[in-house]
Amino acid sequence: MGRSPKPVGRWLGQLEPRARALLLESRRLAAIQAAIAGPLGPAAAHCRVGCVRDGTLILYTDSPAWAARLRYCAPAVLARLHTGGEPTVAQVRVKVRPAATETPTQRATLSERAAQILLDASNGLPPALGDALRRLARRAPRSR
Q1: For residue 120, which of 142, 65, 112, 2 has the smallest C-alpha distance?
Q2: CB atoms within 10 A of CB 91
Q3: Which of 20, 105, 115, 118 makes an SS bond possible with 140, Cβ 3.0 to 4.6 Å?
Q4: Is the pLDDT of residue 101 over 70?
Q5: To which H or E segment does residue 1 belong?
Q6: Cα separation values, 134 from 10, 75, 114, 118, 120, Å
């Protein structure tokens, strides 16, 4: 029988002190994210904890409208953090970082000239490669 899998957190913690510190900080930020969800209400879905730096909690949101709402909720967030074991956080700063959007992929088009070059090149090649080039050449738009 094989050994049972170990949690990654345990493995990282044994790796080296820097990895352990990184793991502890990520857990701390995840706990802050969970703790502030209540005071933020619906804004929590648009908010991500960035870091705590010099007593300032940095929150990221995806739009200026949500940033205004988060700034309005800052006193309640601080109160929740202070009662929840994060007394080092003295202020909240909100930054807008739009969510990454997928850019629509543009399908490349093949010119008639390129299609003709592919057809010419397909002659005399091994059958599989020649067939592939001819199939590719057929994708070129036909002129009318």
Answers
A1: 112
A2: 10
A3: 115
A4: no
A5: none
A6: 55, 67, 11, 7, 9
